[in-house]
Amino acid sequence: MANSRFEYVKSFEQPDVLLPNTWIVVRIDGRGFHKLSDHYAFAKPNDRRALDLMNAAAVEVMKELPDLCIAYGVSDEFSFVFHPNCQLFERRNGKLVTTIVSTFTAHYIYKWSEYFPERPLLPPYLPSFDGRAIVYPNNRILRDYMSWRQVDCHINNLYNTTFWTMVLQGGMSNTDAEQELKGTVSADKNEILFKRFGINYNNELEIYKKGTVLYRQYELEEPKPTKSSADEESLVVESQQSRSQQDKIRKLRRKAQVVVDHVDIIKDEFWEKRPWILS
Ligand code: ATP
Ligand code: ATP
Ligand code: MG
Ligand code: MG
Ligand code: MG
Ligand code: MG
Ligand code: MG
């Protein structure tokens, strides 16, 4: 690298390395998607194609970044989780966030026409995403983070489903529906849906009620292996692995299939059935 009298400006760059040995969550969120979804006429309250496109872009991010353990998406947001022993970009905040955001956005735009063939993207309505990194010091808090997002999905979806049913099927104005829903609890909304519209909320699609979880599928998912191969073992005790072993794990991860699922991630069952995700 050439020395020059200008080089001192490099020293103005601030370090932004994230705390070691913590879970890193990068959450991205669509910018102005309320407007964007209107412009491209997303179905209300849930446009299935828009969700499938989000999930397809997120799968590509998982494939490109084997350090990611799990991701969870709802609406126009996705949370990507790096393991505490992740050393990608020396754990630099800016590098991790911008790489996720730009990789995701690139795939989202690249795949758009596959999901919305009749609605080509046109400026100024181009999708963009913001992103942030948050670190969590232990598994319990990471799981509470994931639960927080899924509870949010549930609360918003119940509200949106009730609201849009009142408007689209009940012929109510947006303001009247909003007014009536003010101060209601979940049971009230379930009752409005069922008594007035004959809709049992439980029968709504899982992708709408639960959001989307992405994780890597390894051979060891049930039935539990009786004998564990060296590879499988290395996945489990990964936290104490050497560099070369970590490279091996990264290769395994790259080969593993990314699963797209719409299931409860709040209860223990999901995690107990897939112990490698947090190990
Ligand atoms: P990274 O890719 O990890 O973010 P970077 O962006 O700092 O690193 P590069 O993108 O590889 O580095 O290059 C940017 C340019 O900045 C280099 O070509 C070099 O001229 C200059 N540069 C990078 N690091 C230093 C340094 N430590 N001291 C002086 N100049 C540097
Ligand atoms: P900001 O830039 O602050 O994030 P925003 O307009 O994107 O603003 P959000 O709170 O992120 O606001 O909400 C995203 C909005 O995008 C939703 O409220 C909804 O209107 C719309 N949206 C996102 N995904 C879908 C979908 N699959 N189907 C229908 N509408 C969607
Ligand atoms: Mg936002
Ligand atoms: Mg948004
Ligand atoms: Mg959002
Ligand atoms: Mg660079
Ligand atoms: Mg460069």
From TrEMBL:
Signal peptide: none annotated. GTP binds at residues 29-34, 75-76. Its cofactor is Mg(2+). Residues 225-250 are annotated as: Disordered. Its EC number is 2.7.7.79. Mg(2+) 1 binds at residues 29-30, 76. GO terms for molecular function: GTP binding; magnesium ion binding; tRNA guanylyltransferase activity. It catalyses: a 5'-end ribonucleotide-tRNA(His) + GTP + ATP + H2O = a 5'-end phospho-guanosine-ribonucleotide-tRNA(His) + AMP + 2 diphosphate + H(+). Binds 2 magnesium ions per subunit. Keywords: GTP-binding, Magnesium, Metal-binding, Nucleotide-binding, Nucleotidyltransferase, Transferase, tRNA processing. Residues 141-267 form the Thg1 C-terminal domain. It is an enzyme of class 2 (transferase). One of its GO terms (biological process) is tRNA modification. Belongs to the tRNA(His) guanylyltransferase family. This is tRNA(His) guanylyltransferase.
